[in-house]
């Protein structure tokens, strides 16, 4: 860093006379292997997205779903579309800039990734124990919120931890996981 103001701010933050500051890079604590492992773990958020979108079609056609949630009635076109649609609504709500900003500001990027996984588990649990259509819809909405949170947060988190020379490769892991 050549700018004296930046040097002063870094010094106030506790980065004094470190080799990385002179070179213009603030060093991290892990090596490239750690960055790859963190990027792979964070990409599980993308896998949750693909998993949830993929399994719901099969679930809606199961006899046990019709028996347990619909009380033996066949699924109507409206119910079918509502189950699919509410997931996307939850994702859009959580990815809405004021919502994602509040979560990330309070929990940080890493905390938001962890929170997204926990929220997905809550949504999946509600879907798994649903005995009424309303509970199923709430579970789908919550699972969708986790996917919105992860979709808006994980690629940014991956790009922040990745070295510039490998940033594109590591961020694309999320898309591959979807």
From TrEMBL:
Protein name: Hexose transporter 1
UniProt keyword list: Membrane, Transmembrane, Transmembrane helix
Stretches assigned to the Major facilitator superfamily (MFS) profile domain: 38-178
Domain of life, per lineage: Eukaryota
SUPFAM superfamilies: MFS general substrate transporter
Pfam (any one): Sugar_tr
Catalytic activity: D-glucosamine(out) = D-glucosamine(in); D-mannose(out) = D-mannose(in); D-xylose(out) = D-xylose(in); D-fructose(out) = D-fructose(in)
InterPro entries per record: MFS_dom, MFS_sugar_transport-like, MFS_Sugar_Transporters, MFS_trans_sf, Sugar/inositol_transpt, Sugar_transporter_CS
Main localization category: membrane
An example Gene Ontology CC term for this record: membrane
Gene Ontology molecular function terms on file: carbohydrate:proton symporter activity
Localization in the cell: Membrane
Subunit structure: Homodimer.
Similarity remark: Belongs to the major facilitator superfamily. Sugar transporter (TC 2.A.1.1) family.
Transmembrane segments: 32-57, 83-104, 111-129, 135-157
Gene3D superfamilies from the UniProt entry: MFS general substrate transporter like domains (1.20.1250.20)
Topology relative to the membrane: Multi-pass membrane protein
């Amino acid at each position: 860093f050549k700018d004296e103001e930046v040097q002063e701010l870094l010094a106030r933050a506790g980065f004094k006379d470190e080799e990385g500051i002179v070179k213009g890079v603030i060093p991290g604590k892990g090596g490239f292997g750690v960055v790859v492992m963190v990027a792979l773990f964070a990409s599980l958020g993308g896998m949750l997205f693909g998993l949830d979108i993929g399994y719901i079609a099969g679930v809606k056609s199961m006899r046990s779903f019709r028996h347990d949630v619909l009380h033996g009635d066949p699924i109507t076109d409206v119910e079918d579309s509502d189950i699919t649609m509410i997931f996307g609504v939850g994702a859009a709500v959580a990815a809405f800039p004021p919502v994602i900003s509040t979560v990330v500001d309070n929990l940080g990027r890493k905390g938001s990734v962890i929170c997204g996984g926990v929220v997905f588990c809550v949504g999946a649990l509600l879907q798994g124990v649903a005995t009424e259509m309303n509970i199923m819809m709430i579970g789908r909405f919550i699972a969708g919120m986790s996917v919105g949170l992860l979709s808006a947060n994980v690629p940014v988190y991956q790009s922040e931890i990745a070295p510039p020379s490998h940033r594109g490769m590591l961020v694309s892991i999320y898309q591959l996981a979807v």
